[in-house]
Design goal:
Elements: H1 3-17, E1 29-30, E2 36-38, E3 43-50, E4 56-60, E5 63-69, E6 74-81, E7 84-90, H2 100-103, E8 107-117, E9 120-135, E10 152-168, H3 176-180, E11 184-186, E12 190-205, E13 211-229, E14 234-255, E15 258-280, E16 284-296, E17 303-305, E18 308-320, H4 324-335
Antiparallel strand pairs: 1-2, 2-11, 3-6, 3-18, 4-5, 4-17, 5-9, 6-7, 7-8, 8-9, 9-10, 10-12, 12-13, 13-14, 14-15, 15-16, 16-18
């Protein structure tokens, strides 16, 4: 990894934001029950690092190997203000494995929008990854020697997904914002039962490969989330949710000049877990989390998602005083909110 590239990236972010930011005393507001502090009058900039990039398995009769991206992780820049979070993610060159000549190049792009309306928490996500290589091919491709840097490249293989999650908290003393976009600070330990609805569309396309896959899914989950306030600045969080749903799949298979389309409907069982540790002060916030998911499905495809997976996330952020134009714009938007307290 070249330090000059990373330092230049950080300097660029600071330079772009510096005209907007000043460093006066932050205005805060305690909620009615004293369980969290509202930081509505701050503009939060956060830098995230995670390794949430999907991989796959090819499982056919007497033939199994892995389909992997050539990147070690992804960086995202998040802007948080009041009820809204906007995040853009990508995989820069310094996170690549450094062997793109052998394993090819992987490009990652992701957009995430989080919105908070009263007790609802809504997420929309757009995710695209392009460029994979095949590993674990011993015996599958005679004459190919991965130990000497010989891999089959899939530069045109693309994964694409559009998804959403709608959540509702039953306990108003539990703060989604403190955990997700840091526009609140949880000051007393609290938790809540959180039902959620997950839905989305994902696609795997490989023009020269054996299959293209499309799937639409909808899953209803129920779970519990809790934030432990350790002291004035430190906290830990736990979350667990389980549920059932359904997937509608389309598989386009190719064998030479022969093509066939198969449509299947599968019931799915879903489990999601999260554990994290964080620091939250008036200006500075940081943390880390381990997130896991497992899903069971009747998968008729030979190219399969990794159904049991886990990934880490590390973030660091700072709260700035927002520009007046942003304050005025958000005041106007919130004045049109039909759920706002009169």
């Amino acid at each position: 990894m070249k330090k000059t590239g990373f330092n230049g990236f950080v300097q660029m972010v600071i330079l772009l934001l510096s005209p907007l930011c000043s460093f006066g005393q932050l205005d805060t507001e305690m909620d009615s029950n004293g369980y969290f502090v509202k930081m509505n009058n701050t503009l939060n900039l956060r830098l995230d690092l995670d390794n949430d990039v999907r991989s796959f398995e090819f499982n056919a009769t007497n033939d199994t190997y892995s389909i992997l991206p050539n990147t070690n992780g992804r960086i995202a820049i998040a802007y948080n203000y009041r009820f809204l979070t906007f995040k853009i993610g990508f995989s820069p060159k310094f996170l690549a494995s450094g062997d793109s000549q052998e394993k090819g190049k992987t490009s990652v792009f992701r957009l995430t929008l989080d919105m908070f309306v009263k007790d609802f928490y809504q997420t929309f996500d757009y995710d695209q990854t392009k460029g994979y290589y095949i590993d674990g091919t011993e015996g599958s491709f005679p004459g190919l020697n991965p130990s000497e840097g010989e891999f089959i490249l899939l530069p045109d293989m693309r994964t694409f997904s559009i998804s959403g999650i709608t959540r509702y908290r039953f306990n108003e003393n539990y703060s989604f914002k403190a955990l997700v976009n840091q526009t609140e600070i949880q000051t007393k330990s609290a938790g809540s039962f959180v039902p959620e609805l997950r839905y989305g569309f994902w696609q795997i396309k490989q023009p020269s490969g054996p299959e293209d896959i499309e799937s639409f899914y909808i899953i209803a989950n129920g779970g519990y989330h809790y934030t432990f306030v350790i002291n004035k600045n430190w906290y830990s969080n736990l979350g667990l949710s389980t549920g059932f749903g359904i997937e509608f799949n389309k598989i386009d298979s190719r064998l030479g000049e022969l093509e066939a389309t198969q449509r299947t409907t599968s019931a799915v069982f879903d489990v999601n877990t999260a554990i994290g540790l964080g620091y939250n002060s008036r200006r500075f916030h940081a943390g880390t989390a381990l997130i896991g998911s497992a899903i069971t499905r009747n998968d008729e495809s030979v190219i399969k998602f990794d159904n049991v997976r886990g990934y880490f996330k590390i973030f660091v952020g700072y709260r700035f005083d927002p520009p007046k134009a942003l304050v005025s714009a958000m005041d106007w938007v919130e004045s049109k909110n039909p759920f706002a307290k009169k």
